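Notebook entry, structure prediction.
Reason for the run: the old model in the group folder had no record of what sequence produced it. Starting over properly, with the input documented here first.
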Amino acid sequence: MKLILTAPVDKLGVAGDIVEVKDGYGRNFLLPAGKAIRWSRGTEKQVEGIQRARDAKAVRGLEHAQELRSQLEGLAVELAARAGDEGKLFGAVTPADIAVAIKKAGGPAVDKRAVSIAKPIKTTGSHNVAVKLHDAVNVHLPVNVVAAK
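New structure, fully documented this time:
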């Protein structure tokens, strides 16, 4: 079965790739999960749009990753979350929340999948967060979680 990936799939490819998979894998996993669409000549134009969107988000290489690192290193990221009186959060801070906070703080757009948290953030205060920009470039950011008003 020939499919066009719409999301990254481990050991298969990234969004925009045209792949050949076994019928059962495509029919039972990739298509229902929304990770792929069926290939046809008409969907070939969609591939170009998917690849353009992927290229716009992607870090374009080691030099670009180092530029992004220099932008992120001096950044003061503050995140407001609902919290109780003792500073305990109602829920937890997610990587998506941190990616949005980085953008609001004036930093570059970072993919939420690039943000990694050592342990779940469930309290207010300063926490260390790692952002993987490239295989060779990681940035450790202090994120200050404050109680929302």
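Summary: The longest strand covers residues 137-147.
The old model has been moved to the deprecated folder.
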